From TrEMBL:
Protein name: FAD-binding PCMH-type domain-containing protein
Record bears the keyword Oxidoreductase: yes
Species in which this protein is naturally found: Heterodermia speciosa
Gene3D superfamilies in UniProt: 3.30.465.10
Recorded superkingdom: Eukaryota
Pfam families found in the cross-reference section: FAD_binding_4
Listed PROSITE patterns: FAD_PCMH
Length: 512
């Protein structure tokens, strides 16, 4: 993400105030792989894989591969697959000491190239660190950073337990949680990051620490939304609660129900924000594709085994319905269905904005979407989804009561996250897709601002690469995160050597 390496020592010495410790060279990927190989014991050298090996290929594009073509297209010089925090510590010490560029991969479900992979550098793939362990009291679940939510729910559902986790089974635990993490349980407990009791973290020095309410409290708060800017999290300890089966699924409607849908969304968000019913959540998706008319595909979840609760009846009563999969099931089954709509192997793009809960504004945003995306119907395998996700005050207030997070949402307003997701197949279409995404976001944000209905927050897990979600947390939170980074990573290892993720200091922001 830093494009001017010769100037970087000057920039870093200013922002960190440490001109005497900034190295002016960067080791090559091949050299770095050799250093890691030589620095590991004989028994752990097998954890390093190189291009054309079976394990390397599998982690790139095979069974354990990346979600998008963009990420899979990057070829690191080698991939390291640690199995414990000590492995990660050893690797970070070597890579930092020799100024090696590296990437950190949890589940690999971010869309843009370089988020969790790196060309010609070293990728630390945490995929083998995926244990899920429940304590004897059934109050804490320890989860490895390479786990996906399917691993978590497969373990917890038979025990009638759950944590505040992701809504797509194949998405990684680490990325969701460090980016905030929306959840079916968010109205009850807050974001996924708010449900963490402790982070085990490998710092830039290689030191392994635990961050929680009693130890390294500033780091604990910073990790709740701070992405990969402070270290490598090697274990998440989630607060755990009793939970059996839930009611959930999709109902797909004709686009002609639009006017009723947006009013129902506004009413639901207001009711949820008032605390009317903390068990209900809605994902309100407007889908534009290459064949046929646009449709509205809503995902509803009620975290009790109760069909068609009153708070959702404004939605579920709409007719006609093209399809309806609502049922009582366990959480793994529900999240598997959500994930089935986002298969691996395509090119993908995310983008986001946050707006007020206002039905008239939703209509304008969707009109912009139709204007922008209609000309793209000839793009191979094109599909654009504009997803409106309620973030009522009941969610954002939970962060305050659980030790605080770094997101900057103050709990005063009921909000809506816009999640733009575009899928297509061919790299030759990248320029037109990227331009359309930015045009949609710029126009939607400009209109929301003109109506005084815009919020600066950008949900990191949905952000376009060219967006700056850390700045969207507000100046105070951005300052706080930078101070924590200076304290725990004085050499700026996770700013200058790990280009993936959304950095705390950026000079490449050119969109919305």
């Amino acid at each position: 993400m830093w494009h001017f390496l010769p100037l970087f020592p000057v920039l870093l010495s200013y922002t960190y105030g440490l001109p005497n410790v900034v190295e002016r060279y960067v080791s090559t990927g091949g050299t770095c792989c050799s250093l890691v190989l030589n620095g590991f014991s004989a028994s752990t050298k097998s954890k390093l894989s190189f291009r054309n090996s079976t394990s390397f290929t599998d982690q790139q594009s095979g069974r354990q591969g990346y979600w998008t073509q963009q990420e899979a297209s990057l070829l690191p010089a080698c991939r390291l697959t640690p199995t414990c925090a000590e492995d990660v510590s050893s690797a970070v010490i070597i890579l930092a000491q020799h100024n090696c560029h590296f990437a950190i991969r949890g589940g690999g479900h971010m869309s843009w190239a370089g988020a969790a992979n790196i060309q010609d550098g070293v990728t630390i793939d945490l995929g083998q660190m995926k244990s899920v362990v429940v304590n004897d009291e059934r109050t804490i679940t320890q989860v490895g950073p390479g786990a996906r939510w399917s691993d978590v729910y497969s373990k917890l559902s038979p025990m009638d337990l759950s944590v505040v986790g992701g809504r797509v089974s194949d998405v990684g635990v680490a990325g969701v949680t460090l980016g905030g993490g929306n959840s079916f349980f968010a109205p009850q407990y807050g974001f996924a990051c708010d449900g963490v009791a402790n982070f085990e973290v490998v710092l830039a020095s290689g030191r392994i620490v635990n961050a929680n309410l009693h130890s390294h409290r500033d780091l604990f708060r910073a990790l709740k939304g701070g992405n990969n800017n402070f270290g490598v999290v090697t274990r998440f300890d989630f607060k755990t609660f009793s939970k059996g089966r839930v009611w959930g699924g999709f109902i797909v409607y004709p686009y002609q129900t639009l006017q009723s849908q947006v009013q129902a969304l506004q009413d639901f968000t207001t009711a949820s924000g008032a605390g009317t019913d903390p068990y209900a959540s809605v994902i309100n998706a407007y889908v534009f594709g290459t064949t046929g008319p646009a449709v509205i595909a809503n995902q509803y979840t009620y975290t009790k085994p109760q069909p068609y609760p009153e708070i959702l009846q404004n939605f579920t009563g709409f007719q006609p319905q093209i399809s309806n999969s609502m049922r009582i099931a366990d959480l793994l089954n529900i999240t598997d269905e959500v994930g089935s709509g986002t298969p691996n192997g395509f090119r993908q793009l995310f983008g986001t904005a946050t707006i007020a809960n206002n039905a008239s504004l939703f209509i304008q945003v969707l009109a912009i979407a139709q204007q922008v995306f209609e000309p793209l119907k000839t793009v191979t395998d094109f599909q654009a989804s504009v997803v409106l996700q309620p973030i009522p005050r009941t969610i954002t207030n939970k962060g305050i009561t659980s030790g605080g997070n770094s997101l900057g949402l103050d709990g005063r307003d009921d909000l809506i996250f816009i999640d733009l997701t575009i899928q297509w197949s061919l790299a030759q279409d990248d320029p037109v897709i990227n331009a359309a995404a930015e045009l949609f976001l710029r126009r939607s944000i400009a209109f929301a601002k003109s109506q005084n209905l815009y919020n600066q927050f950008l949900y990191l897990n949905y952000a376009l690469q060219a967006q700056d979600p850390i700045a969207g947390y507000g100046r105070w939170n951005q300052f706080f995160l930078r101070q924590v980074a200076r304290k725990y990573d004085r050499r700026g290892v996770f700013q200058r050597l790990v280009p993936g993720g959304f950095k705390l200091w950026r000079d490449d922001v050119d969109c919305c």
